[in-house]
């Protein structure tokens, strides 16, 4: 049985096929489209009601089945027989999806076919659509796959090459890193590593890694980085002794928990969030609050709220306000 969606897809391809194969038989068409001859007969009956807007006799197609089952399709205007073309938006969506699929870690089957399809599509859609697609990025939730690769690289003492999605710039960057450790925080896995591109220690959220490769070269973390005091390693590493700060966020700042590890996140009736986060570096959270301005309210502690107000007042005084 053919569903309505399948029939529509088949009809869209059937018309140009019949026009380019005049006299083809019902049996041949059924074999080509992988359906029964009875289904093709039903499709041809539907074509009697298809055509250009207007609905008059001259606007509709006329399929005829002659001797020996030969099909002849008459009264088909150019707009119908013209090959299907992707709009710029459709082409960009397809290019982005294919490029994203090509970046999925662990995908090896038919990668050559995927690359060939990408090349043909890019050539077909032209520079404008391909350029627009190039500026878009896609990140995939593939933490388990990436975690396995990172764990293996760390155990073998080897460097990694990452393609990493940076939300603040909405782009994918490529960098070589030397693994130090894997950390779990608020349900997410992070790679603590030495980044050769930035020449600094960085934390990478594994669900933002869109491609990862283990290199043959050994990892080489500078000695002074490995020997640094634990408190200096990362602002993400918190414990129960750090101050707990509570904030109420407006709906347009719901992104905050994505960037700042929170102990709890609660929905508010207005669509905003109430978050609680430990702050080993209160200056960092204070800068966040000042940047958000009227889109955030400090619930507590009182001392932190007073510190934010004092910093804001000093800044305004500097502008003569």
Structure commentary:
With 321 residues, this protein is of the alpha+beta class. It is 41% helix and 24% strand. It has 12 helices and 11 strands. The protein has helices at residues 4-20, 26-33, 37-47, 78-81, 88-102, 111-134, 143-156, 223-226, 230-233, 256-259, 282-292, 302-318; strands at 62-65, 71-74, 158-166, 171-185, 188-195, 200-205, 209-218, 244-249, 264-267, 273-278, 296-300. Strands 6-5-4-3-7 form a 5-stranded antiparallel beta sheet, covered by helices on one side. Strands 9-10-8-11 form a 4-stranded antiparallel beta sheet, with helices on one face. A hairpin with a 5-residue loop joins β1 and β2. α5 (88-102) packs across α6 (111-134) and α11 (282-292) packs across α12. The chain is elongated and about 90 Å long. Mean pLDDT is 76; it is low at 105-109, 137-141 and 230-239.
What is the structural class? Answer: alpha+beta
User: Which percent bin holds the helix content?
Assistant: 40-55%
Q: Approximately what portion of the residues adopt beta-strand conformation? A: 15-25%
Taking the alpha carbons of the first and last residues, their distance comes to: 75 Å
Succession of helices and strands? HHHEEHHHHEEEEEHHEHEEHEH
Care to give the gist of this entry?
The protein is an alpha+beta fold.
Show the helix and strand layout.
Elements: H1 4-20, H2 26-33, H3 37-47, E1 62-65, E2 71-74, H4 78-81, H5 88-102, H6 111-134, H7 143-156, E3 158-166, E4 171-185, E5 188-195, E6 200-205, E7 209-218, H8 223-226, H9 230-233, E8 244-249, H10 256-259, E9 264-267, E10 273-278, H11 282-292, E11 296-300, H12 302-318
Antiparallel strand pairs: 1-2, 3-4, 3-7, 4-5, 5-6, 8-10, 8-11, 9-10
């Amino acid at each position: 049985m053919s569903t309505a969606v399948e029939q529509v897809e088949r009809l869209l391809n059937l018309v140009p096929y019949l026009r380019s194969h005049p006299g083809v038989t019902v049996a041949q068409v059924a074999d080509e489209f992988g359906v029964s001859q009875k289904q093709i007969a039903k499709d041809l009956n539907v074509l009697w009601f298809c055509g250009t807007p207007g609905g008059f006799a001259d606007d509709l197609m006329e399929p005829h089945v002659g001797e020996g089952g030969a099909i002849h399709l008459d009264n088909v205007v150019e707009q119908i027989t013209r090959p299907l073309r992707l709009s710029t938006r459709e082409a960009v969506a397809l290019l982005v999806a294919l490029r994203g699929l090509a970046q999925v870690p662990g995908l090896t089957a038919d990668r050559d076919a995927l690359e060939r399809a990408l090349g043909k599509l890019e050539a077909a859609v032209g520079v404008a659509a391909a350029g627009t697609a190039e500026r878009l990025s896609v990140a995939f939730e593939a933490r388990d796959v990436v975690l396995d690769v990172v764990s293996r690289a760390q155990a073998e003492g080897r460097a990694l090459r990452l393609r990493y999605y940076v939300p603040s710039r909405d782009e994918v960057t490529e960098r070589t890193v030397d693994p130090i450790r894997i950390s779990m925080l608020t349900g997410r896995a992070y790679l603590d590593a030495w980044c050769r591109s930035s020449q600094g220690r960085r934390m990478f959220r594994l669900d933002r890694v869109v491609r990862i490769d283990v290199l043959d070269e050994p990892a080489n973390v500078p000695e002074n980085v490995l020997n640094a005091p634990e408190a200096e390693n990362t602002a993400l590493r918190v414990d129960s002794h750090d101050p707990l700060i509570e904030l109420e966020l407006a709906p347009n700042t719901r992104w905050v928990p994505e960037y700042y590890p929170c102990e709890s996140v609660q929905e508010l009736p207005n669509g905003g969030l109430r978050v609680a986060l430990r702050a080993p570096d209160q200056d960092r959270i204070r800068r966040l609050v000042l940047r958000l301005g009227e889109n955030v309210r400090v619930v507590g502690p009182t001392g932190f709220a007073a510190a934010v107000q004092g910093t804001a007042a000093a800044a305004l005084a500097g502008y003569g306000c």
